[in-house]
Specification:
six-stranded antiparallel β-sheet, globular, single chain, two-stranded antiparallel sheet
């Protein structure tokens, strides 16, 4: 599977958590961004493969949700035409910048190709910028790193 497709699948799962009402794991009502503002660093980083919060402490509810996401991820992958083994790493960092919601998605595929992609807003989308002709375009926010 193409790396960009894995990024899209990872984005969809992480956005489900970020939406505050995830149907992937049943009905989960929570606000990962509010929890991020209550941490010392202002960021919550989640490893979706391990089902763990890795940068700081989240609430018991968020910790439980991360475990449920890890459990639901294999089926989510199958429904989207891939396998969990296609991912070597899948983490997302959630934080607020001013009043805007941000997520930085880190995906490494099984071949070692890595990418870091920034998303913002509600729902989470790539940031928009004006090009040299004044047109609104999605910012090329994906950085690929070869193995």
């Amino acid at each position: 599977m193409k790396h960009s497709q894995l990024v899209a699948i990872a984005h969809n799962l992480a956005d489900s958590l970020a939406s505050g009402c995830s149907l992937v794991i049943g009905i989960y009502e929570g606000d990962v961004f509010a929890e991020a503002t209550n941490t010392i660093s202002g960021v919550i980083e989640i490893d979706f493969l391990a089902g763990a919060i890795i940068s700081s402490n989240g609430s018991f509810k968020l910790q439980s949700a991360t475990h449920l996401f890890a459990d639901a991820f294999p089926e989510f992958c199958r429904k989207n035409g891939c396998e969990v083994t296609d991912f070597a790493c899948f983490t997302a960092s959630f934080f607020l910048k001013a009043t805007e919601r941000y997520m930085v998605l880190n995906v490494v595929d099984r071949f070692g190709k890595a990418s870091v992609t920034e998303f913002m807003g509600n729902p989470l989308r790539r940031p928009k910028i004006l090009d040299d002709r004044g047109r609104v375009r999605s910012q090329n926010a994906t950085v690929y790193m070869k193995p």
